[in-house]
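Components:
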Amino acid sequence: MNFKALVPALLIAVTATGFGMMSSTNTALATSTSSASAGAEIGKAAPAFSLMDTDGKKVSLADFKGKTVVLEWFCPTCPYSGGRGARSIHASGKVGALMTSMKKADPDAVYLLIDSSTKKMRTTAEKLAKQDAALKKKYGITAPILIDADTGVAKAYGAKTTPHVFVIDGEGILRYQGAFDDQKDGGTNYVLTSVTAIKKGEKVEPTYVRQYGCGVRTN
Amino acid sequence: MTLPLRTIKRTLLAICLIALSISGELLSAQESASEPVTDDLSTLTGNDLVKVEVHADTLRFQPGQALTLAVQYAIRPGWHIYWRNPGDNGMPPRVSVQAAPGVVVGEVLYPRPEIFQKKQETSFGYQGTVCLLVPLRITQGFAASRLDLAIQLEWLVCKDICLIGSEQVSLSIPAERPQRPHAVDPTGLRLVNVWRNRMPLPAAEARISAAIRGDSLLVSGPAGLSKRVLFIPELTPGVTPARRAPVAGTVIGRRFTVEIPLDIRPEDALDQPLRAAGLVLLGTYERPRAIAVDVPVPHSAPDESSSKQ
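Structure:
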């Protein structure tokens, strides 16, 4: 047997195995044929969920049957969501103002925040709940913040950013999803327009505006 | 034939060293993946992570002249900012140029972006250094002795977490002195020239054809030496790819074809005309060929394939 010839082959094999292991963590460009709108779909039943809020209370979508429900994906550090700065929809008072307007448009509408940041922030559900409870107090957030510990609800809905909003009518049908607003001073808040249209029995338009903000990590 | 013992020992040592370095890479990757995001967010800002400079390609202006601003972002390694269409998440950089009447500010030009693809999400943007270009035109009647520009910049920079940075930059460019040669800003001109070459070409210039067929956008043209073609969409209200971006096409011989099924929802168009637009990417990021495609989408697109049957 020619051992001298085997040596380079062995070296190549070991190196290739190593690179193979490393490149399995690099993503080859995936050009999936799956639908770009994976997750909750407009006009279809919104996925059911049951999550604990920051007070340890269980909250389910089913609890609000017959009412319009707004879900807003939340992250305590994202500068567009729970983070600091003028762009934060909570720190700037935009959500507070929205809830006041929403109450006038539909007094029975429900607003829930969902935090799926455990993987993104590499933290535990307990620590996240504590962090969110402190922010609730700081910003005067009255809506419950639900902790999506295993990010399963974010996956089910296809939540991509914080904020990313979903408006579900009283029959559990998703009527709008996407951006919280058009980001203009005195501009359009798509949550309010959707809740108002649903209350009046009108068509919700638009049904989708591209979401903006920090990424929601589900893996 | 047997190997000398020394050779065997050296070979085994080499194999062990390679194996150790590979496992070290994997271990550090795992470690960084499991570290909590502790970051001292109380002090870190988007301005710490991105240094921005604005250069004009000219030192002096004259009425009727076109000039270009280069907005340069130097991004800390490991972090990125976003393209005009950020993708599944993110926010495009904001560049707002305020000028006196008589100055026409054009649309911000974005060079070909990189694709950042993870399992569940895809975004488009830039890392390292990138320049956005802003074309300006001074009308013939502009009589001021100085061109004063107030440039407001805001950007989202992300890694595991995201931070916003902002800057306000003022430029004041004096008018040309009579009978003096035109004064260029060499730094600005170099930046503008370098980054202009990385801007996508219009489809017509690249001999690309793009049309709506049924509910799809069909793009084809010369592939050059490229073996791979991808399409990434622009933000077009009411029209989104029905397939997750980037959409891969096929290259046969020297021609490519890419078909992008579209989800067309006029009710989501926000009163804007329906368009299918995006970039066809050929080549590589380092040696890019990017072609911009933009076609109107008929409100009720005819189904050509069924009519052919």
